[in-house]
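can u pls check wat happens w/ S-adenosyl-L-homocysteine
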Amino acid sequence: MYNRNKIHIIILLVAVIIALLTVLVSLFVHSKQKEDILGYDIKRQQMVENQIVARGITSKKVIKAMLKVPRHQFVSEELSASAYEDRPLPIGEGQTISQPYIVALMTKELKLSSNHKVLEIGTGSGYQAAILAEIADEVYTVEIITSLYETAKERLSTMYPEVKVSNHDGYYGWEEYAPYDRIIVTAAPDHIPRPLIDQLIDGGIMIIPVGPPGYSQVLWKVTKEGDNVLTERICDVTFVPLVREQ
Ligand code: SAH
């Protein structure tokens, strides 16, 4: 009698465990299906293959970061379906998140290592900062427009809490944490700001678009060597202007 009860309890326990496992497995499968329906992972892989690798970017670090960062979470919900297209997208306040290829190209040209301290001017959506944070340990980013700063800060604080964000005119860099191993500027000034050169370490690299608003801008690789500043032209680009605090 006693043994029978024991067997009943064991059978009941096994049944409960099987039922629980079934629920867990179906929840897991369902969440995977949901992800598949939206197709973001696949779109991101296609973006990397067709827009980045196909155009000659071979850096493993850059490819890995671009495969990982969920670009659709850096634009508004209405635009998330377009997040992996081969173009810049509006992020509000007349600003744009750069085309994925340009993000990859600029990141590649930075020759970033994990031990680098990197400064970005022009946080915008926070997407470029997230890509940098996938590669480098210390990322600082500056945004002049307060509403964009607030949205990006909130977004990065959950996804990349180690990234430091500030709301000021990035023409002056971010003196408090200088010098930087690398600087990336994602809005175009009409000349290379002196404070940014000053805040670069000796041997440091800065990637910066320079030129008048809208056209005829050139993306430059700037290398600081002692008192010398070497500039190499990368390609023609179109960026929003680097605006100055009034
Ligand atoms: N890197 C961003 C996109 C940059 S768009 C991203 O990944 O989404 C350029 C950004 O530079 C805009 O958000 C613009 O407001 C900002 N910006 C323009 N002038 C600036 C300045 N002087 N200092 C800091 N940010 C500036």
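Residues 65 and 131 are 6 Å apart (CA to CA).
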